[in-house]
Design brief:
Blueprint lengths: L1 E10 L6 E5 L6 E3 L10 H11 L5 E10 L1
Antiparallel strand pairs: 1-2, 1-4, 2-3
C-alpha cells in the first residue's frame, strides 16, 4: 500500500531548488538534495511553508508516494 506524503520545494530564481531538511530550528534548514528532504504530512508541510513564505523564493508542496 502506498501513502501520500509531502516535501516542501522552494524555487529561488535561477538557483537550484531547495527542499526543507529540518523544521525544528529557526530558520528552517534547507538542502538541495531531494533525497535528504524531510517527508512530512500535509499539515506539517503547510506550517513549514508559512514559516518560509517571508524569505526569498516561492515555496510549494510536492506530493511523494511512500510505501507503508
Amino acid at each position: 500500500m502506498k501513502n501520500i506524503k509531502f516535501v516542501v520545494k522552494v524555487n529561488r530564481g535561477s538557483l537550484a531548488p531547495s527542499f526543507v531538511q529540518r523544521t525544528d530550528r529557526t530558520p528552517v534548514q534547507m538542502t538541495t538534495d531531494r533525497k535528504l528532504a524531510m517527508v512530512m504530512g500535509k499539515l506539517t508541510a503547510e506550517d513549514a511553508i508559512k514559516s518560509i513564505r517571508k524569505s526569498s523564493g516561492v515555496p510549494e508542496l510536492v506530493p511523494v508516494q511512500v510505501a507503508v
